[in-house]
């Protein structure tokens, strides 16, 4: 009996499922989410989409997608991603794909505009597989080339009727001025006094980090709000444009040309308040515009700390405390947690400087306890007003103290100085820094980890080579600083004719080989 049941069970398991009907197969096909086909990352490959004017049977916006290169003819979309709380379904090659609200509003409007349905369009959210980090690295690395080769960049300002009304008002007005240059512009109904111009100036679009590169490299710009478009080249003829709002300066090529080719650090400082969903995009969005720093490799897998080091290594001429502080601010770096397992691990040094040795007698004679400025009287019979710091050796017990004058390392720090005291039987230093304000010292103690700072006596035995870890350098750079702090003149002038007028840096970045040299 058991053999009969087992035979029936075997026949039941071997029975083939019923064949699906044509409708069931079609329904399964269309309900399957859209899947990207891989790009050739050895070439300048991209994807492009084309909008269909008709919606699907279910009322969804439709588009088709193809693979191409940046040599193709296409239009780029510049827009704000917006919040992630609302998602809308569109169809790409008949397959469902979720997009955010602001992009959905553009697609809904653009499918009704004939020339946009005839053009191939590059849109980052649709043309880049956002779930593939390697592909994102490849596409973002060539983002500058994508926008600079596009025949037009459409700046989507949102579905704002106030902005649309302003753009619509400007279209016939600018055309009439071009045709009748001898006529004076109307004095009544000044566009800059209306609510439409105000809504344009305060639009979220201008806060976005990526628009700096997208508009700065564009051949042609078209402003679009709701269903209204305006040629961006006509916009600067506004009366009163001498007082052009800084938020709209990217529409003026004469202004953007002033900072193209400047160092990455300079541009990061220039646009440090721009916004991005990912902090490092505030850096990557400037790579196609800069001179020094353009070799920085896009990497979304690396930690923020690693990205920060890579930025500074690609900007060696701009390396300084003020540049380090700026990078830390842009990437929102935080001090390491003391409970971290790697807290006491040896860290490779990142920067170095030469500090002369001075005696305790010199220190007492200089009245250091009152003001650091009075330290610059004499050292071994020579003027030392240029010293960024020095080392004092205490003979009994033999301990070292490091004095760093941040105002001489970077002029933007003014009177801030740091004193590091070596602690007996403890590797490294226990640090204390003070600000000088009207001869008043305000000491604040912070922890310096082992190997954050190390010293090596030079061959002439008259100075020490000091080496600092990157984490300690960030701590040092962030003393008495905030987002309003500016770059020193030496760093700001990198890449300009004025660069040669500045002295060399007091603190230098270590080469890769030097960073791994043992320091006892």
Properties at a glance:
5-stranded mixed β-sheet; 520 residues; single chain; 9-stranded mixed β-sheet; 3 domains; alpha/beta
In a few lines, what is going on in this structure?
The protein is an alpha/beta fold and about 525 residues long. It has helices spanning about 1-15, 20-30, 100-110, 115, 125, 135-140, 145-150, 160-180, 195-200, 210-215, 255-260, 265-270, 280-285, 305-315, 320-330, 360-365, 405-410, 470-475, 490, 510-515, and strands at about 45-50, 60-70, 75-80, 85-90, 95-100, 120, 150-155, 220-225, 230, 350-360, 390-395, 400-405, 415-420, 430-435, 440-445, 455, 465-470, 510.
How would you describe the overall organization of this protein?
- This protein has 520 residues and is α/β, with parallel strands linked by helices.
- The protein has 3 domains: 30-150, no CATH class; 161-259, no CATH class; 341-478 and 508-515, no CATH class.
- It is 30% helix and 21% strand.
- It is built from 20 helices and 18 strands.
- The protein has helices at residues 2-14, 22-31, 101-110, 114-117, 124-127, 133-141, 143-149, 161-179, 195-201, 211-216, 253-259, 264-270, 281-284, 304-314, 321-331, 360-365, 406-409, 470-477, 489-492, 512-515, and strands spanning 45-51, 62-69, 75-78, 87-92, 95-100, 121-122, 152-156, 221-225, 228-231, 349-358, 389-395, 398-405, 416-422, 429-437, 440-446, 453-457, 463-469, 508-509.
- The strands form 3 sheets. Strands 10, 11, 12, 13, 14, 15, 16, 17 and 18 form a 9-stranded mixed sheet that branches. A 5-stranded mixed sheet has the order 6-3-7-8-9. Strands 1-2-4-5 form a 4-stranded mixed sheet.
- Helix 8 packs across helix 9, helix 14 (304-314) packs antiparallel against helix 15 (321-331) and helix 15 (321-331) packs across helix 18.
- The protein is elongated.
- Residues 178-190, 239-243, 339-345, 367-385, 432-441 and 516-520 have low confidence and may be disordered.
């Amino acid at each position: 009996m058991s053999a009969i049941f087992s035979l029936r069970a075997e026949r039941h398991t071997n029975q083939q499922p019923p064949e699906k009907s044509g409708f069931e197969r079609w329904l399964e096909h269309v309900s399957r989410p859209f899947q990207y086909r891989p790009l050739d990352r050895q070439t300048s490959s991209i994807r492009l989409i084309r909008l269909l004017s008709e919606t699907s049977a279910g009322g969804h916006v439709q588009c088709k997608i193809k693979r191409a290169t940046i040599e193709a003819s296409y239009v780029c979309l510049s827009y704000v991603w917006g919040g992630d709380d609302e998602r809308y379904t569109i169809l790409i090659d008949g397959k469902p794909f979720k997009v955010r609200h602001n992009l959905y509003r553009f697609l809904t409007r653009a499918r009704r505009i004939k020339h946009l349905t005839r053009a191939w369009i590059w849109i980052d959210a649709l043309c880049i597989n956002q779930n593939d980090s390697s592909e994102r690295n490849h596409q973002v690395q060539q983002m500058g080339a994508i926008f600079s080769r596009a025949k037009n960049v459409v700046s989507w300002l949102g579905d704002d009727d106030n902005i649309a009304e302003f753009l619509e008002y400007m279209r016939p007005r600018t055309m009439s001025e071009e045709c009748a240059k001898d006529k004076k512009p109307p004095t009544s109904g000044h566009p800059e006094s209306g609510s439409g111009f105000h809504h344009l100036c305060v639009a979220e679009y201008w806060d976005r980090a990526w628009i700096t590169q997208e508009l700065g490299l564009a051949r042609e710009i078209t402003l679009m709000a709701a269903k209204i478009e305006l040629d961006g080249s006509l916009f600067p003829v506004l009366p009163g444009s001498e007082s052009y709002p800084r938020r709209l300066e990217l529409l003026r090529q004469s202004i953007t040309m002033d900072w193209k080719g400047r160092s990455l650090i300079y541009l990061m400082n220039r646009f440090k308040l721009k916004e991005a969903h990912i902090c490092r995009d505030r850096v990557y969005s400037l790579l196609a515009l800069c001179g020094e720093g353009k070799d920085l490799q896009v990497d979304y897998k690396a930690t923020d700390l690693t990205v920060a080091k890579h930025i500074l290594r690609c900007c060696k001429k701009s390396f300084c405390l003020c540049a380090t502080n700026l990078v830390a601010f842009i990437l929102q770096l935080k001090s390491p947690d003391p409970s971290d397992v790697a807290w006491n691990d040896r860290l490779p040094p990142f920067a170095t400087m030469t500090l002369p040795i001075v005696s305790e007698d010199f220190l007492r004679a200089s009245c250091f306890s009152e003001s650091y400025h009075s330290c610059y009287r004499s050292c071994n019979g020579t003027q030392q007003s240029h010293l960024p710091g020095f080392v004092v050796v205490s003979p009994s017990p033999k301990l070292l103290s490091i004095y760093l004058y941040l105002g001489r390392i970077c002029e933007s720090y003014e009177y801030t100085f740091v004193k590091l005291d070596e602690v007996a039987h403890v590797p490294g230093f226990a640090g204390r820094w003070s600000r000088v304000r009207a001869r008043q010292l305000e000491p604040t103690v912070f922890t310096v980890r082992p190997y954050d700072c190390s010293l090596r006596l030079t061959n002439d035995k008259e100075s020490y080579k000091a080496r600092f870890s990157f984490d300690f350098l960030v701590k040092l750079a962030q003393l008495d600083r905030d987002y309003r702090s500016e770059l020193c003149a030496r760093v700001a002038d990198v890449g300009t004719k004025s660069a040669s007028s500045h002295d060399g840096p007091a603190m230098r970045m270590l080469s890769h080989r030097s960073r791994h040299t043992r320091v006892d």
